[in-house]
Specification:
Largest sheet: none
Distance between the termini: 17 Å
Shape: elongated
Number of helices: 2
Radius of gyration: 14 Å
Number of strands: 0
Strand content: under 5%
């Protein structure tokens, strides 16, 4: 059981890291420009990504305490 919880926390941390990296990429690419997948970087895309990152961080914080 403990092993399962440990893996879940690691996975959640990995996802949080992914979202942080995505935000960095979006900022580098710039608003109005396209990613390698032809997704246009918009304020809305950045806001949604930030919102999800915050949700995941809150979930992680609840698991820790």
């Amino acid at each position: 059981m403990i092993d399962n919880e440990s893996r879940r926390k690691t996975t959640l941390s990995d996802i949080i890291y992914f979202y942080k990296q995505q935000l960095e990429r979006f900022k580098k690419i710039g608003i109005g420009n396209k990613t390698e997948f032809n997704t246009v970087v918009t304020d809305c895309l950045i806001d949604i990504t930030l919102k999800r990152l915050h949700e995941l961080q809150q979930k992680r914080d609840k698991l820790i305490f």
